[in-house]
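Structure first, sequence second, as always.
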């Protein structure tokens, strides 16, 4: 019997911010009803899963990652009944739904924190959070939001103690040493599982436990708790994805995927290496990163975002070597004041200097490498950002649906919008929007759709084995993805100059080679197989006979 493939293996994930996606009631804020009305668009585009950034009640001091009630919906977005309607509609269209699960911290307005401050020292209630009499403890844990905070400790007048916060001071860290906290958070998992969701994106997952003398990241106790989460999810008897956000080098992210822990993890080092390849026009570091990722966790379990709702995390030498960071800083567009915390606070298109070819080749790569490609809402259009907005808001502006007022996002008067719609030169919503791009056959949007249609008929790109091939050209990366019945050759030129090179296809000698996207026949495979790729060009070639004709299925 054929092995059952989990829905998420190689699935294309579309990330969106519900508040910024579509406004169903005209108050200027996106909501679940608005999102429901756009599900047919997502289905048309061809993505398989939708990841919603936090939808829970929150004072929104950190985009909703500061939660006051884990088992409810922010009233501006809807309620549990509208969530149910949204989820049912998504499932009816065959779309999976992934929720953000914020385990590490709550809002300081969460009733647990308010109770903790007033509770006696050492009591169970106080110890729901991490307290100290001085601010020197865990001194090796780096401050993550270094544009906003200078310490991981904040003095609390009422408690008469400092509390620990890895992120903003209004996001106190939960104390996982306290079994009550563990039980509560496992109940949260259970609550949403019972609602029928298909996956969790586990926010800031390395930071659950602390230990003196360490960076307080990925401690054994943290892994032990995550295995409890996995057990709880497994007990639901459904195929539910647990996807880790661990902003770590590959070797430090891999442990979250071992020993029956989580199913997937974002590969942020890969993201940085992809941008570095564009910035330098060379692929040697990218190759190394892919080799390492695949040797540690083979298969399609790495999630591959180009951009997301945060800054492009580069770290200061911990995530990727300094040379990669320097290359990106030198070669990609940062504009004024776009460096935030540990990275570059830009959307995909402006980061790539508005070059649509670089945009396409990077997306083509995440659609062909082993893993889960992630699209950040609006990037499928090449949407711009709004420099000057606070924090990461430049990248979180309303989705551009049409040339109508507010980009069709909302009928509210403009000043009421959650964030301003983009009208900056080159990215104005009257030009860059879904309606216009749907009608232009050569648009980025139609390109994404075509790529995804084609990819659906090339299962080797989704679940196939991965093998890097030698390439004689430093700007080009070549590899094959193969299942028993299908071999797809991929070549991508990450340099801004054209590239001609030979590939050794001797092992497929004499087999037919056909470019998969446009159906163009190439010479039979041979030892010196010649390819020319224009600047930022790429290709998918089917080698040998295929089970199904992709032409018939388009
Ligand atoms: C994650 C989120 C980010 C948030 C932080 C704190 O890194 O992606 O947006 O600010 O966690 O919850």
């Amino acid at each position: 019997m054929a092995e059952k493939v989990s829905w998420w293996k190689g699935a294309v994930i579309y990330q969106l911010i519900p508040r910024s996606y579509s406004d169903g009631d005209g108050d200027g804020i996106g909501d679940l009803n608005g999102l429901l009305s756009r599900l047919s668009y997502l289905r048309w585009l061809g993505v398989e899963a939708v990841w919603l950034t936090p939808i829970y009640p929150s004072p929104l001091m950190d985009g909703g990652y500061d939660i006051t009630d884990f088992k409810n919906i922010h009233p501006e977005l809807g309620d549990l009944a509208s969530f149910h309607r949204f989820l049912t509609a998504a499932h009816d269209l065959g779309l999976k739904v992934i929720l953000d699960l914020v385990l590490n911290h709550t809002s300081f307005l969460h009733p647990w924190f308010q109770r903790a401050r007033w509770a006696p020292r050492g009591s169970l209630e106080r110890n729901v959070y991490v307290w100290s009499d001085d601010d020197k403890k865990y001194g090796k844990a780096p401050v993550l939001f270094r544009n906003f905070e200078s310490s991981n400790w904040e003095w609390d007048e009422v408690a008469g103690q400092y509390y620990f916060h890895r992120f903003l001071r209004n996001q106190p860290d939960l104390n996982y040493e306290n079994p009550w906290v563990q039980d509560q958070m496992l109940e949260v998992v259970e609550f949403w599982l019972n609602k029928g969701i298909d996956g969790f994106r586990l926010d800031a997952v390395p930071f659950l436990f602390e230990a003196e003398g360490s960076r307080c990241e990925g401690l054994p106790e943290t892994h032990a708790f995550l295995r409890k989460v996995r057990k709880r999810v497994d007990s639901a008897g459904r195929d539910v994805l647990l996807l880790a956000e661990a902003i770590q080098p590959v070797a430090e992210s891999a442990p979250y995927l071992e020993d029956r822990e989580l199913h997937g993890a974002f590969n942020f080092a890969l993201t940085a290496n992809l941008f570095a390849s564009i910035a330098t026009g060379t692929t040697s570091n990218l190759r190394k990163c892919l080799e390492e990722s695949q040797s540690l966790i083979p298969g399609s379990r790495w999630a591959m975002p180009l951009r997301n709702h945060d800054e492009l995390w580069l770290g200061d030498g911990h995530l990727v070597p300094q040379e990669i960071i320097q290359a990106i800083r030198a070669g990609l567009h940062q504009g004024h004041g776009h460096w935030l915390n540990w990275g570059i606070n830009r959307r995909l298109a402006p980061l790539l200097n508005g070059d649509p070819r670089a945009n396409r080749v990077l997306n083509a790569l995440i659609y062909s490498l082993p893993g889960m490609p992630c699209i950040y809402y609006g990037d499928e259009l090449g949407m711009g950002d709004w420099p000057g907005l606070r924090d990461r808001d430049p990248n979180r502006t309303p989705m551009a649906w049409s040339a109508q007022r507010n980009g069709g996002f909302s009928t509210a008067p403009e000043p009421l919008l959650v964030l301003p719609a983009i009208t900056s030169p080159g990215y104005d919503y009257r030009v860059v929007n879904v309606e216009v791009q749907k009608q232009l056959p050569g648009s980025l949007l139609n390109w994404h759709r075509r790529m995804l249609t084609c990819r659906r008929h090339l299962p080797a790109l989704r679940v196939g084995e991965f093998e890097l091939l030698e390439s004689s050209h430093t700007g080009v990366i070549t590899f094959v993805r193969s299942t028993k019945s299908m071999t797809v050759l991929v070549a991508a030129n990450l340099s801004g100059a054209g590239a001609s090179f030979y590939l050794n296809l001797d092992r497929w000698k004499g087999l037919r080679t056909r470019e998969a996207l446009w159906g163009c026949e190439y010479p039979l495979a041979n030892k010196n197989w010649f390819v020319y790729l224009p600047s930022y060009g790429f290709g998918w070639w089917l080698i040998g006979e295929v089970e199904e004709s992709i032409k018939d299925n388009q």
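Margin note: Confidence is low (pLDDT under 50) at residues 547-554.
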